[in-house]
Amino acid sequence: MNDSPVTRHTIFQNSLMSALLDGIYDGEMTVGELLGKGNFGLGTFDALDGEMVIIDGICYQLRHDGTATRADLEQRSPYSVCTNFVPRISRTAPQNIRRSELSAFIDEMTPSANYMYAVRITGTFSDVTTRTVVRQNKPYPPMTEAVGDDAEQHFTDVSGIIAGFRTPIYEKNISVPGCHVHFIDDDRTSGGHVLDFTLVEGRIELCPGTDLNLRLPLTSAFSNANLDPEDLDAQLHATEVKGGGTSAASVHAERDAR
């Protein structure tokens, strides 16, 4: 298999991560519209009502208690990223590997750090630690305050999928730099935003993205949002890597920020 991203491939994104950080939690785009853009992805729902993961063309809502249900097509999303997943790069993962170690393994799989990659890890995990945002009420607080009530969930001896995106540092005002991933089990009944995991055995697949299709909201809230805060790196670390220690996201964000 050729590991060079010679084929153009589009990743679609709805709104900006910096808008979400600023408390823009009401979305224009429905789940039905989003699924028209791709069969694989992640994001969140209106009012930060849980995390989103899209697997094989089905959108799931992951709630703060660790449960997962199929999302309604009319639900809306203030932030989401998706693509039609094509596994152009695939490797068997080393056995019993932790997330921090797997980050370096994935780096070796990528032909360039300057492209986007959809990442799918399928396998058996001895443990997965997640957290999930809790639904917020208006007036919405900034995301650094909203994640204060997050509770960690721990899954042991579970089979499932970790899905997400590896994003270059130059996109940090647009998306989450590094690896931003969500987990859902094979039964599609539990999951969340991944903080850490140990993969017993599994398969890693990458879909390189060369083109970004970005849709911005047409709302007054977005028009008035602060999309370039001075403490952007700190906000990203507090909201996306919270409790993650040396997870892949923190490794990428801290390394690339230097």
UniProtKB/TrEMBL annotation:
Gene Ontology biological-process entries: acetoin biosynthetic process
InterPro entries linked: Acetolactate_a_deCO2ase (IPR005128)
Name of one Pfam family that matches: AAL_decarboxy
Source superkingdom: Bacteria
Keyword terms of this UniProt record: Acetoin biosynthesis, Decarboxylase, Lyase
EC number: 4.1.1.5
Keyword Nucleotide-binding: no
Keyword match Signal: no
Pathway: Polyol metabolism; (R,R)-butane-2,3-diol biosynthesis; (R,R)-butane-2,3-diol from pyruvate: step 2/3
GO MF annotation list: acetolactate decarboxylase activity
Reaction(s) catalysed by this chain's protein: (2S)-2-acetolactate + H(+) = (R)-acetoin + CO2
NCBIfam families: acetolac_decarb
Similarity field: Belongs to the alpha-acetolactate decarboxylase family.
Record's protein name: Alpha-acetolactate decarboxylase
Gene, per the UniProt record: alsD
